[in-house]
Structure formats: structure tokens, C-alpha cells
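From the pipeline queue, job 12 of 40. The input is one protein chain; the requested action is below.

Action: predict structure.
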Amino acid sequence: MKRTTVLAFVLVAFFALPARLVCQDAPPPDTYKGETLCPTRRGVYPHRVYTPDPNYDDKDRKKKVQGTVFLSLIVTKEGETADITIEKSLTSGLDKEAVKAVSRWKFEPMMDDGKPCPAKIKVEVSFRLY
């Protein structure tokens, strides 16, 4: 009787586990305002049209802080930036200036089957004193 119980448990465990894995919902595709983001391909990015340089925060200039702020953002199908988030911070002053500058950037939007679509990209904003 013990063999039957063990065998039954093994069979239930074997067949129940794959069923739970199959029944799990797939993660939703990345979207922005209900639209699916353009599929990303290595080396294919929205083309920058207007990218003004950031201002240097006065306090950080006096301290001679230099470095790069890494940002993640959405390029909308109109070529504007949205949902800007800081991936790697430098200082709060330079982070704010980087976000402020990138929010003014303009792009040619990504195309999918000849139609513009939003795309998620990462950018770097460098602060250097010369």
C-alpha cells in the first residue's frame, strides 16, 4: 500500500506542476498609453532631431562634479519624450538638469510596418567641465 501511495503522489506532483506553469498568464507586452511599443532591434533607435545640451547645476559646477546620468524613456509616435526615469544617478541637481534637457529632445519616431509607434530607449547625458 505504501508503494501505491508514493506512486500516486509522484504522479500527481509530476502532472500538477506542468499544468500550473502552463496556466500562468504571459506577461503583458510593453505598452505606452495602450499602444504596443515598437519591437526593439539591436542598433535600431529613433533618430535624434533636436537635442539641446543640459545646463550645469551651479552647486555641482562649484564642486567640479563630472559624470554621466543614465536615463530610460519612451519616444512617442509624435517624436516627443515621455516617462523619463533615472537609471543611474549622479547628483540630484545634475539629475534634474538631465531630465529637464531630455524632456525637450525631439526624435523621428520608430516605424513598424510603415506606421510610427512608441519606443523605449536608454540615453546617457554627460556632464563635463573643460
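Job complete. The chain has a mean pLDDT of 80.
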